[in-house]
């Protein structure tokens, strides 16, 4: 029986996934949690990508600027999302000692790379769906 190009690609994908899961499980034993699952759950929630894309585009934004740019998000939900992204080192929050206090949000280096990969993934998906 002849092995086709598609069969070979399927085998490569299977091996790649197997290596990923072995690495992921090994990391979970060391740290007690799955980094990939935790980060993906943060990024794939309803509002996180909007925050990441806004900060990627504008670089520095304050809370009300983010709220104005993200239509439909409540203040509470934006606050929860920002705290979650900060906890996972996607964004950095800077508080300035002023009256009233000024708080600014920026992407961390990890957040910038995450934004870049998310845009690539979204672009791939949109191009794939157009075909």
Provide structural commentary.
The chain is mainly alpha-helical and 131 residues long. It has two domains: 33 residues; 83 residues, Winged helix-like DNA-binding domain superfamily/Winged helix DNA-binding domain (Arc Repressor Mutant, subunit A), CATH 1.10.10. 68% of the residues lie in helices and 11% in strands. It has a three-stranded antiparallel sheet with strand order 1-3-2. α3 packs across α6. It is elongated. The relative contact order is 0.11. The mean pLDDT is 86.
Briefly characterize the structure.
This protein has 131 residues and is mostly helical. The chain is 68% helix and 11% strand. It folds into two domains: 1-33; 48-130, Winged helix-like DNA-binding domain superfamily/Winged helix DNA-binding domain (Arc Repressor Mutant, subunit A, Orthogonal Bundle).
What topology does this entry show?
Layout: H1 5-31, H2 35-43, H3 48-58, E1 61-62, H4 63-69, H5 75-87, E2 91-96, E3 102-107, H6 109-130
Antiparallel strand pairs: 1-3, 2-3
Helix pairs in contact: 3-6
User: How much strand?
Assistant: 5-15%
What's the number of structural domains?
A: 2
Instruction: Describe the global form.
Output: elongated
Describe the largest sheet.
3 strands, antiparallel
Low-confidence stretches: none
Q: How are helices and strands ordered from N to C? A: HHHEHHEEH
- Which class of secondary structure composition applies to the elements? mainly alpha
What is the CATH domain class of the largest domain?
A: Mainly Alpha
Distance between the termini: 32 Å
What is the assigned CATH homologous superfamily of the largest domain?
Winged helix-like DNA-binding domain superfamily/Winged helix DNA-binding domain
Strand order of the largest sheet: 1-3-2
């Amino acid at each position: 029986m002849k092995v086709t190009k598609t069969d070979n690609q399927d085998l490569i994908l299977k091996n790649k996934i197997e290596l990923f899961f072995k690495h992921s499980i090994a990391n979970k034993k060391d740290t007690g949690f799955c980094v990939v699952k935790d980060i993906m759950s943060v990024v794939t929630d309803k509002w996180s990508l909007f925050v990441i894309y806004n900060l990627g585009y504008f670089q520095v934004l304050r809370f009300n600027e983010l709220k104005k740019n993200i239509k439909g998000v409540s203040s509470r939900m934006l606050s929860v999302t920002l705290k979650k992204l900060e906890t996972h080192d996607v964004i950095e929050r800077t508080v300035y000692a002023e009256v009233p206090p000024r708080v600014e949000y920026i992407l961390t280096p990890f957040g910038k790379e995450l934004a870049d990969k998310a845009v690539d993934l979204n672009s791939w998906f949109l191009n794939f769906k157009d075909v």
